[in-house]
């Protein structure tokens, strides 16, 4: 582990996401610019009064950006990590949305039992065996809990889809962030759990397949 590879965002203690200064430390993954497109997609899909659920909020950047941009919605943001939720709550206070985002400690939908209109998730999607092949600045400093997606990298999403169905969360719109190699597996699993939905893969700003969208 070389300190010369220590991420600049951790050194500064923050990074810009959707023009918001988001505090980060080694308890949370550093938000990526590619992820900003989730905000723009959800903006187009949102309606007045929507209940939005984010699974795996990390620093809180997605939920906070949505709360800043969209009026008349409510946001619930979960994470399995108590330490990540500390950072997320700090960011919510920093951007004056602490009364508009509810944070819940939960392993996927473990502590969620009510329906939501929109479900958003950017869960770990790196296959376990590939973690050690990542750039040193990532594998040696960012939390593996926020990177490791299991054997094929889609394990957590597969579990999330199953829980959405079993718990009757019933969203009209779901969006998740993917590894760019997961297009086929994501479409296959999406169709398995949501056979009557419109399912598409969208590209990020660099042209990589990055988001799975599921419309009821």
Give the topology, please.
Layout: H1 8-12, E1 14-17, E2 20-23, H2 36-45, E3 51-55, H3 61-69, E4 74-79, H4 82-94, E5 101-105, E6 118-121, H5 136-139, H6 155-166, E7 173-177, H7 183-193, E8 198-203, E9 209-215
Parallel strand pairs: 3-4, 3-6, 4-5, 6-7
Antiparallel strand pairs: 1-2, 7-9, 8-9
Distance between the termini: 46 Å
Q: Give a quick account of the main beta sheet: strands, pairing sense, barrel closure.
A: 7 strands, mixed
Strand residues, percent: 15-25%
* CATH-assigned homologous superfamily: Vaccinia Virus protein VP39
Share of helix, binned: 25-40%
Gyration radius, rounded: 16 Å
Q: Please, how many helices?
A: 7
Stated plainly, the CATH topology is called Rossmann fold
Count of separate structural domains? 1
Q: How many β-strand runs?
A: 9
**Unreliable stretches:** none
Q: Strand order across the biggest sheet?
A: 5-4-3-6-7-9-8
Structure, explained:
The protein has helices spanning 8-12, 36-45, 61-69, 82-94, 136-139, 155-166, 183-193; strands at 14-17, 20-23, 51-55, 74-79, 101-105, 118-121, 173-177, 198-203, 209-215. With 216 residues, the chain is an alpha/beta fold. The chain has one domain (3-215): Vaccinia Virus protein VP39 (Rossmann fold). The strands form two sheets. A seven-stranded mixed beta sheet has the order 5-4-3-6-7-9-8, sandwiched between helices. The protein has a two-stranded antiparallel sheet with strand order 1-2. Helix 2 (36-45) crosses helix 3. The protein is globular.
